[in-house]
Amino acid sequence: MDKKTRNSIVAIMGLVLALIFNGCTKTTPTKKTVDGPVNNGKIAYVKVDSLVVNYYLTKDLNDEFLETSEAYNKEFAAKKTKMTKDAQAFQVKYQRHQFATQASMMKERERIVAMEKEVKKMDYELSTKLSKIQSDNNKRVTDSLNVALDHFQELHHYKYILNGAAVLRAEGADNITSEVLKILNATKKK
């Protein structure tokens, strides 16, 4: 499996888990009234994993995340490669006793150590930035899903909308995944 595919899977799974653990469904009925038939306390469920895979916003955010991640990884790899080459060159020069003075050897060693610290710092900063981007993306998708579910619940008067991942048996419950997905993806057309 290539790195891009693995990153895509990790990002999507992270989003699915975030949606599952954040409880992206509401359990309290809305107080607004809408003309039309009332569901009389029926239960609906949404297959969140299907939503996440088919929701345009998730796909777009994942593509942006992968581009950013690849750019960060490329920048990091270049810096780490330079540091590794410089460290190897230092080692060769040291073993061949090619430094003119002890002071020049120490100065070069300090430069290599500083580069190593800089690479570690860069790794931490880039990882932190990527985590923040992923967290922000998860929040955007969760928020838009909650808005769509609020709208759907208001429109159809469901008492409960559950996450389908936790539903083992759903006699009498309605799978509203495709309807909610239509609402979510309709926002892109506007």
Please give the largest β-sheet: 3 strands, parallel
From the spread of the alpha carbons, the general shape counts as rod-shaped
Strand order of the biggest β-sheet: 2-1-3
- Coarse structural class: mainly alpha
End-to-end Cα distance:
37 Å
Evaluate the radius of gyration. Answer: 26 Å
Percent strand equals 5-15%
Question: Based on the structure, what is the oligomeric state of the protein chains?
Answer: single chain
Comma- or semicolon-separated keywords:
single chain, 71% helix, rod-shaped, 190 residues, mainly alpha, 5% strand
Characterise this structure.
It contains five helices and three strands; from the N terminus they run αβαααββα. Residues 23-39 have low confidence and may be disordered. It has a three-stranded parallel sheet. The protein has helices at residues 3-21, 48-54, 56-95, 102-156, 177-189, and strands spanning 43-46, 160-163, 174-175. Helices cover 71% and strands 5% of the residues. With 190 residues, it is mainly α. Helix 2 packs parallel to helix 5 and helix 4 (102-156) crosses helix 5. The protein has one domain.
Chart the SSEs and their pairings.
Layout: H1 3-21, E1 43-46, H2 48-54, H3 56-95, H4 102-156, E2 160-163, E3 174-175, H5 177-189
Parallel strand pairs: 1-2, 1-3
In short:
The protein is mostly helical and 190 residues long. Helices cover 71% and strands 5% of the residues.
